[in-house]
Design a protein that fits this description.
By secondary structure, the protein is of the alpha+beta class. It has two helices and six strands. Helices cover 23% and strands 37% of the residues.
Length: 123
């Protein structure tokens, strides 16, 4: 299983962040399947790649550290593809979504907290 993660601190209130993220994911041609005030799950729409390469995006919004001016969020992008190549589909989608977040006009990214980018095999 390929899995890539990163974190962001953005200058937007927690109340406004979730709708903006849902719109951003939909603009990335992802289908938002489930969301709560602090969690969003979206999947890649089938049709362009094989089933094992379809990515799932999970965004966790940290309500416990949110202030009136900034909110921290963590993103996990994963699929069932074995990451046998560095430039696999999951990594390409990770880089694309990460870039869209970094370039969004809806907020000013205070500090990139590029936690880790990793891929690993799951049992």
């Amino acid at each position: 299983m390929a899995r890539y993660t990163c974190s962001f601190i953005v200058s937007v209130t927690i109340d406004h962040l979730q709708p903006l993220l849902i719109e951003l994911l939909q603009d990335c041609t992802l289908d938002v399947q489930y969301y709560t005030p602090d969690y969003i799950m979206a999947r890649e729409i089938p049709g362009n790649v094989s089933f094992s390469k379809l990515v799932t995006v999970e965004i966790l919004i940290d309500k416990s550290t949110a202030t009136e001016t900034e909110t921290r969020m963590s993103i996990v992008i994963k699929n069932e593809e074995l990451p046998l190549q560095l430039d696999n589909h999951c990594r390409q989608m990770f880089e694309y979504i990460k870039q869209e977040i970094e370039n969004s006009r809806h907020w000013h990214q205070e500090r990139p907290v590029d936690k880790e980018k990793k891929s690993h095999l799951s049992p």
